[in-house]
User: What shape does this take?
Amino acid sequence: MALKADLRHFLDEEGNVLELTEQAKTVFKFLTKIVSSVSENIEQPLIDVDLKCNSRADELSCVGSVEATCISIGMIEWHCDTCEASGTISNWQGSMWDKQERTIH
Assistant: This one.
C-alpha cells in the first residue's frame, strides 16, 4: 500500500513542525529526507536517496534503498528498490526542506 503524504499535515500555519508522536516524527524525518534529496537534484530523472526503507518505522526489517523522483510540479514519488513500499509527497515546495535553487528575474 502506498503512503500518500501531504507535508502540510506535519506543519503549522507558519511552516514550523507540529508536536508529533515518536512514530510521526520517524515518518516525518523519512519524508523530509526524500524532499531534500529530490529538490537538491530536481533535474535528475531518478534520485537514489541516502535512506534505507526500514528507517520509516522501527519494526521494519527491509534493508532496501529508497529511490525518488519529482513526477509533476509539487509531487514527489518514492519507492523501495527491494520491497513494495512506495508513496507520494505533496505540498513540499517552499518548505524549509525544499533545496531548489531560486532564480530572481
